[in-house]
Amino acid sequence: MAEVVLPQLGETVTEGTILRWIKQVGETVGRDEPLFEISTEKVDSEVPSPASGVLTKVVVAEGETVEVGALLAYISDSAEAPAPESVPAEAPAPETQAGPVPEPADAAEAQPETAAADEPAPVPEPVAAAEPASVPAAAEAESPERSPPRLLSPVVRRLVNEHGIDVAAISGSGVGGRVTRADVERVIRKRRSAPGPAAAPAPQRPAAQAMPEPRETEAGSPRIVPLSSIRKTIGRHMVASKATSPHVLTAVEVDFEGVERVRRKARAAWRNEEGFSLTYLPFIARATCDAIADFPHLNASIDGTDLVVHRSVHLAVAVDLEFQGLLAPVVRDAETKRLRAIAREVVDLAARARAKQLTAAEVTGGTFTITNPGQYGTLMQFPIINQPQVAILSTDGIARRPVAVTGADGGEAIAIHSVGVLALAWDHRAFDGAYVAAFLDRLRHIIQTRDWEAEIL
Q: ∠ CA(207), CA(210), CA(212), 5° rounding?
């Protein structure tokens, strides 16, 4: 009998909520066939079955939130599977939280909308605890025709509490009519655009600085801002990475003038054709894949005492989510794609990451990571390795600087070029500094000498 457990669906994901069991107890399921829908801080997605057989028992019912690795169900390879123990078709509503949970942008973008059950068989109604605290209990008596309380995801519950919204007045657009984050945000936007005090929204914090509400302190005292759950989770993962890998940083300065000339020339046509700006990132990503072909141990992961060298470059690109955290969606088989294809995929993945539309497969399985703080003009960053990978590349700020150039006659002169730093954090268990230095030198050479104009045509 196979056990179904909650898989790891992202490096900082620690728990998930079962939205819906696609297969019911007693039904046959094939290996890799969708078995249930899960919602995490990162994504909402379908999870495939780990084995073929008959779903004989569901341990975690719809609406329940459990930790990664928790036992969810059993699958028997026998058609004569024993009748399961009594398990409710739908769990009671998730525990009501004492108040709005401080939630950073990546959690807000990735928290689930919990699905109501859509099976035709009668099931117990969710308990009233699922109703937002801001909705008075007396409201049930005032409207006999009102729909029963709905299961709400943590992010939806936080929003309705924060803005004093009556969830019963919202028409849900999610599966089974559930109220989604988009539904609530639509109501909030409508309030903000409507004149008059009746439509006045709750006090807003600037989007770029959205932080947990500080606790009250005496006048003149420092503000106390509780760490959110996602910040605590990221902290645990970063500490674990530093404890696991002997981190080393190696950096090189790169002359991007050849890239910059192509960007200036192609900028207008590129935007008209693609609908987004031509940045330095796809050039660096394309060159990185080519450099990895010559130094394959950079595209590897540690498994116990073994170095697993991957054949394909599944390039993870860190995406900032409103300064509250990072998500690293993966460009699969990046070594097979030209610059334009990589640029399109990175832009698409980043947009869907911020809209919480990525699948679990799109945020797992990376073999090499690029993080891109350079848009803010950084000089050099020491990033932390995304375990179990062995290296992460930081693309730092590129600026116009004086450089020494050699003319056709061999004479030297001073010119103004676009120059930046590429910094690689790497795991000293996997290789030594000479290997890394040679890799970065190869990467620099590709960036500085390739015919990039031909590449983007």
A: 165
358-385 as b/e: b if 16+ CB within 10 A = bebebbbebbbbbbbbbeeebebbebbb
Q: Is residue 63 a contact partner of residue 91, using CB atoms and an 8 Å limit? A: yes
What region, left, alpha or beta, does residue 288 occupy, with left being phi > 0 and alpha being psi -120 to 50 degrees? alpha
CA nearest to 159, candidates 131, 137, 132: 132
The H or E element containing residue 357 is: none
Is 432 a catalytic site residue? yes
Say whether the peptide bond before residue 100 is cis (omega within 30 degrees of 0): no
339-354 and 281-294 helices, crossing angle to 10°: 120
Asked whether 286 and 455 are in contact (CB, 8 A), the reply is yes
Alpha-carbon span 314 to 333, nearest angstrom: 5
**Which helix or strand (DSSP H or E) is residue 235 part of?**
helix 229-244
Active site annotation includes 445: no
Q: How far apart are CA 224 and CA 217, in angstroms?
A: 8
pLDDT digits (tens, 9 = 90+) for 251-310: 999 999 999 999 999 999 999 999 999 999 999 999 999 999 999 999 999 999 999 999
Torsions phi, psi for 199 (to 5 deg): -105, 10
Residues whose CB is less than 8 angstroms from the CB of residue 221 and which lie 6 or more positions away in sequence, other chains included: none
Catalytic residue among 32, 432, 441, 445: 432
Quick check: 447 and 284 in contact, CB under 8 A? Answer: yes
In terms of residues, how long is the chain?
457
Query: Which one is catalytic: 118, 333, 428, 445?
Result: 428
Query: In whole angstroms, how large is the CA radius of gyration of the chain?
Result: 26
Q: In this structure, how many other beta carbons lie within 10 angstroms of the beta carbon of residue 428?
A: 13
Place of tokens 């030297």: 412
Rounded CA-CA distance 81/83 in Å is 6
Alpha helices in 53-175, H assignment, sequence order = 105-110, 139-142, 154-163
172-220 residue pLDDT tens: 776 567 777 777 778 887 877 666 554 444 444 444 444 555 555 567 7
Task: Report DSSP state, residue 383.
Answer: P
Query: Is pLDDT at 233 greater than 60 in this prediction?
Result: yes
Please, are residues 390 and 302 in contact by the beta-carbon 8 Å criterion? yes
Helix (H/G/I), strand (E/B), else coil: 433? helix
In three-state secondary structure terms, 272 is: helix
> Per the structure block, which two tokens stand in for 284?
């660096």
